[in-house]
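User: Structure please.
Assistant: Input sequence and predicted structure:
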Amino acid sequence: MKKQYNKWINETLKKGSLRYLLILLIGLALGWLFFHSSGHNDKISANANKEVKEHKHTIWTCSMHPQIRLDKPGKCPICGMELIPLKESGSSEDSSTTIDPNAIQLSDEAVALANVQTSIVSNENPMKDLRLYGKIQPDERLMQSQTAHVSGRVERLWVNYTGESVRKGQTLVSIYSPELYTAQQELLETVRMNSSQQKPYLLDAAREKLRLWSLTDQQITAIERSGKVSPIVEIKATTSGKVIAKQVNQGDYINQGAVLFQIADLSRVWAVFQAYEADLSFLKLGNKIDFTIQAIPGKLFSGKISFIDPVINSSTRTVGVRVELNNRDSKLKTEMFVTGNVMASLTQYKNQLVIPQSAVLWTGKRSIVYVKEPGAKTPTFKMRIIELGPSLSGAYVVLSGLSLGEEIVTNGAFSIDASAQLDGKNSMMNQ
């Protein structure tokens, strides 16, 4: 009897423990569900408040039409594309700081990726580096034409090719001339008449006729003394130099005044450069030109501008710029190509602002640069329209639009302008 009682007691205690354990588990489950739901609702509420707060500082634009700017999401009224969020340009990360709505902000990472570089605008004394191209040409003042003083036939050429050197008084050609033969006979007849009738004016006239045909006094005297005439006349060189043009051959019939040879004295030559009309304002008489010649490598020549052609070539739109050179050693040959440099001082733009060419964006009529806003915590840039003066070697003179000490973008300006276009702000494509 006692054993049955103890067994009943043990079973009762065992069932009670299981019941209490089950109640405990149910209580824990209900508590977890209650508190988890409350935390989740608080999180949803916080996210909702955050989204509302973000909407207050977010504008929406179209990636294809950045001029569309709305205060809520939707579709573009032009193309129907979904609008994308855009950070409010009037607010910075620090709500207490505001920037110009037309300025563009970039993060430090974006500035580094775009390789944006800036420089300070300063005053300089600008120098214009002009490169000119030209040729060596003979000095026109030292050129002479050798002409025939009588008509006739070329019996012999004493100078046979272009480039041959000649000396003053050297025989160039021998010409057979019937007219000269007749004039010599008239001279001898006049000499005989003058000895009997004493009419010196007739003798002087006969002599002058031969002088006009370029016979020397010695030749005329020899004819009078010998009493012999010859139909052959020799044409003598009137200058020393090089034959640069030969215009007659042996056996040709020529008329009085025909040009037989062109002879140039090449002891002095010209270097004639061609300058574009846009560069004429920088060239002055007396400017020094340093130039090189491909045929004489390693040597630098120099000279001063002695003449600027007053007439522009209508086909090339260039003007001849002349430099006179000494050529006694005959190293300079005509038609050699020369390349010259002129460093022209722009005195009319002294102490003007000068900026690098890489800083300027061209938009047809406008020239713009991007100026960095001073004092901004985030790199901030603003477009500025400027007026440019003459271009230098890698730089421009600025006439207006910038001030001394301002910081401008010299590299990466196009990347900043592209960002401004996407933000719908003033840029090179829209104003």
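The longest strand covers residues 296-308.
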